């Protein structure tokens, strides 16, 4: 899926997310979100801060600077502390003020997303896990908004899924992010090759090798798999970011394994929060 298609999904998601947040009554902003320890307002503020972080990363990356922002150069602990203070300060603002902040951040992000196509070949932007290609940074923005939009909506609607209209694009952000939340790369009971068949239009098949202390995405058409998992983008995203247990989707017929089902079950249970 090319960057223009991902950007269209971002624009579509932004529109409905922004509209839904504006429609929330002030009391709903104070309710707990599905993100442990964050209210709806806190989850929203996190999204705005991520938007600013990734927009700055793209801008500096296009200019040849894939390093961390200035405050992070004093160490990640100082960076996280500064972000914590900024979030605490923002929680004193009204929903209207927070929405205006989001609008400013998103306008700057839109400019940077459009400019990716004109960036120097090989340009990279910064993320706390390290420098990544600019297209990865763009995908990270879709990944973040899709999940935190769900964190907010599921508070009000327990049956909520990742937005159906952007699920195909969201699915394509997942392979490059699965390793970060995976906790069993050294467990021999989970070692093997897993083929994940994700429904959608278009469908997606991802093969992953677990073992030797890591998780690697294999080229298309990889050989025999230890197990095959059949699922959908929303279920895959919510399981691999440890937002919902796999049993919820098994019982709903949205997660089915064939082959070595014991290993497939261990694989599905090995994820921790992203």
Describe this structure in words.
With 274 residues, the chain is an alpha+beta fold. The protein has helices at 3-23, 26-29, 40-62, 76-90, 95-115, 134-156, 167-171, 178-181, 233-240, 246-251, 261-268; strands at 124-125, 132-133, 192-198, 204-211, 214-217, 227-231, 255-259. The protein folds into two domains: 3-171, Up-down Bundle (Four Helix Bundle (Hemerythrin (Met), subunit A)), CATH 1.20.120; 178-268, Nonspecific Lipid-transfer Protein, Chain A, CATH 3.30.1050.10. Strands 5-4-3-6-7 form a five-stranded mixed β-sheet. The chain has a two-stranded antiparallel ribbon with strand order 1-2. Helix 1 (3-23) runs antiparallel to helix 5. The radius of gyration is 19 Å and the shape is globular.
Helix and strand content put the structural class at: alpha+beta
CATH superfamily of the largest domain: dinb family like domain
Q: What's the tally of helices?
A: 11
Global Rg? 19 Å
Describe the sheet with the most strands.
5 strands, mixed
What's the SSE blueprint?
Blueprint: H1 3-23, H2 26-29, H3 40-62, H4 76-90, H5 95-115, E1 124-125, E2 132-133, H6 134-156, H7 167-171, H8 178-181, E3 192-198, E4 204-211, E5 214-217, E6 227-231, H9 233-240, H10 246-251, E7 255-259, H11 261-268
Parallel strand pairs: 3-6
Antiparallel strand pairs: 1-2, 3-4, 4-5, 6-7
Helix pairs in contact: 1-5, 1-6, 3-5, 3-6
């Amino acid at each position: 899926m090319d960057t223009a298609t991902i950007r269209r999904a971002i624009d579509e998601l932004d529109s409905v997310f922004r509209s839904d947040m504006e429609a929330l009554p002030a009391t709903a902003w104070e309710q707990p979100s599905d993100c442990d320890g964050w209210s709806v307002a806190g989850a929203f503020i996190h999204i705005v801060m991520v938007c600013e972080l990734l927009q700055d990363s793209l801008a500096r990356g296009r200019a040849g600077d894939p390093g961390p922002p200035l405050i992070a150069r004093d160490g990640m602990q100082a960076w996280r502390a500064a972000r914590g203070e900024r979030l605490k300060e923002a929680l004193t603002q009204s929903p209207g003020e927070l929405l205006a902040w989001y609008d400013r951040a998103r306008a700057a992000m839109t400019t940077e997303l459009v400019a990716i196509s004109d960036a120097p070949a090989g340009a990279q932007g910064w993320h706390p896990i390290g420098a990544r290609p600019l297209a990865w940074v763009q995908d990270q923005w879709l990944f973040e908004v899709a999940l935190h939009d769900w964190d907010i909506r599921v508070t009000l609607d327990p049956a909520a899924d990742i937005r159906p209209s952007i699920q195909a694009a969201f699915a394509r952000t997942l392979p490059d992010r699965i390793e970060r939340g995976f906790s069993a790369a050294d467990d021999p009971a989970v070692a093997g090759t897993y083929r994940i068949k994700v429904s959608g239009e278009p469908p997606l098949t991802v093969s992953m090798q677990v073992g030797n202390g890591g998780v690697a995405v294999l080229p298309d058409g990889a050989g025999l798999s230890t197990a095959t998992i059949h699922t959908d983008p929303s279920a895959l995203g919510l399981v691999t970011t440890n937002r919902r247990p796999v049993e919820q989707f098994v019982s709903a017929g949205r997660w089915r394994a064939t082959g070595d089902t014991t290993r497939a079950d261990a694989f599905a249970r090995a994820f921790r929060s992203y």
